[in-house]
Amino acid sequence: MAGLFKNPAFHDSVLGRLERSGGLWRGTLTISDATRTPLTLFGSNREPDAEALATARQIAPSLAAWRPLIQQALFEHHAPYAEAAAADDPSAKDSTKPLIQTPDQVWAQVSLQSVTVMRLGGVVTTELVYAAAWDDDHLLGARFQSGQFIELCGSV
What we know:
By secondary structure, the chain is an alpha+beta fold.
């Protein structure tokens, strides 16, 4: 009887153990430096969707190509914060908010929080969710479809 309420599990040769919880399949993904990042996938009650699995398996190998796109989008998201500080806006002079002057400086100010493979407009979409030091009100989602960057969602 104890196994009746146990979350279903699925083992993938690349992603490892995934467990069904809250209507999604959950596990972790090693992105770089052996850091494990929370991963969620859509699927049925019995197993993750085959296309979601295939997409998730390609995230780590694709990240090097995606990194410049994500970097530029994050830098552009930071621009209004930098402009407000440059305009001497008193509300922008919070010393805890970094001023980033070049795109490559964003990486010291963001951290990857999670990765989700979902359907967005009926299309399988990968979303890498970042916390940014300059925007403590939102998490930022870098979204990809078929390996192509589609947007940085400013409110995940």
